[in-house]
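tool=predict chain=A
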Amino acid sequence: MPGRDDIRNVAIVAHVDHGKTTLVDAMLWQSGSFRENQDIAERVMDSMDLEREKGITILAKNTAVQYGETKINIVDTPGHADFGGEVERGLRMVDGVLLLVDASEGPLPQTRFVLRKALEARLRVILVVNKVDRPDARVEEVVNEVYELFLDLDADEGQIEFPIVYCNARAGRAGLTVDDLADDLRPLFELLLETIPAPVYEEGHPLQALVTNLDASPYVGRLAICRVRNGTIRKGQQVAWCRADGTVERAKVTELYVTEALDRVEAAEAGPGDIVAVAGIPEVTIGETLADVDDPRPLPVEQVDEPSLSMTVGINTSPLAGLEGTRLTASQVKSRLDAELIGNVSLRVLPTERPDTWEVQGRGELQLAVLVELMRREGFELTVGKPQVVTREVDGKVHEPVERLAIDAPEEYIGVLTQLLALRKGRMEQMVNHGTGWVRLEYLVPARGLIGFRTEFLTETRGTGILHHVFDRYEPWHGELRTRPSGSLVADRQGPTTGFAISNLQERGTLFVAPGVGVYEGMIVGENARSEDMDVNATKEKKLTNMRASTSDELVRLIPPRPLSLEQALEFIREDECVEVTPVSIRLRKVELAANRRQQAASRKARGLS
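tool=predict ok
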């Protein structure tokens, strides 16, 4: 089959924080994409506010660099397992991958996930060992671990013979041996052109372009990001739009763009192998095909992995609703969730018994928390329930998702970590001590056992441990798991909190609120040191008298409250609790606010009536 030697399409895949976006930065700079004096932010591909704040990639994005006569289209993918749908989608656009591995950490769970997807798609792999300048780098062992990973994933002989390049992405240096790095990335570019195959196409085949991503422009509306498989697509051309439901409609390509560095540039036409943005089809969705009008041949729609976690999202029903947000109604929440579904292939939105609440299913807590965080920044007020696992029935038995967990921690914490994971029904698969004082533990743990685990893990390892997990498989239900050992301090009336009340409550546990904050009945104001919930009066004022006492002017020392981020709040809550999210505040509350109704429900449950 003929190919286009002037184009290469490659995706950069890796575990989180192994340097994908930094490597793209270096490739853009060294290919002359920017002026010498141009003011460019670090990690230029991370364009969303949330990506910059968290230092992670959330959405897969493509860019292009010119190296000599060849245009290299690069797809930067996320490293978190929660955004795995973005990775699967990015791999459909390319003919090969750069597999980045940290020279010290080696292959981690997400490395296994992205490599499995690349091998299934029969893509050529180049191993890039990054951060070789780290003082704790162990390059030889890491390369051997990658070989083991390939064997573990049943790679064939052709796939296992992968080329290796060593790299320091931050300094923009690469080389074919660790000790001899060039001053630039030329060895990486040369190896890429040599190894990654040029896009192939059938001579005389009618147009086929697969929609793999969506974007929006304020001027021309929705943009369909496509990889042209066969034929040529032109601006102003009539195309057959092969929809997901099997119907075929005529549509016109009003604008056609190709990517050059970070900019979209208008183009008159694009051929096989090009990654283009097409405007003019406002209803187009991911997985559909743009084909020839006279001979429409749709490309097969690829399936993405199913979600493994769900939580309920609904309108804010607390007494303080409507004070801080601008988007409050059920119809606004529903239309926003529907809009998210268009561009996010790994999400599902299902109805619940209540008309103002929906069940949102995704790949993990972080993905769902990022969605809620984006919505609160847009002015929404929401009530978010506790994350639950998505179960499925196999041969009449309930099965639940099991995650592969990798932990790096100082060796003195092995005992406490094995104890924590035993309570969560974890099974140890492997334990490796690198001899540096750090140990790596690999576990298989039920996904619901990991909900709320991160906070406890960081506390027990004094913030030094590193934790990563990725979906592995479904297994039969593991039975009851131990939940949070502590109870909640629940406000029993509405009003502003006072320093006097808080000073008395400090002995009972950790507080989440400061003096002068508005609370209401059923709102959680702190964590009880004991396992049961306690109703407390956080608005109690000190009674004033005209009698002078020696203790009246004593300074009350208050312990600062513990602020909870959205992810921490979702991890903390129990089944009968939820999180109230507004643009200004994150509050924890009981699902049932009235104390007498909570007591009735508890006594009914104890008698086995509900």
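The two ends are 66 Å apart (CA to CA). Confidence is low (pLDDT under 50) at residues 39-44.
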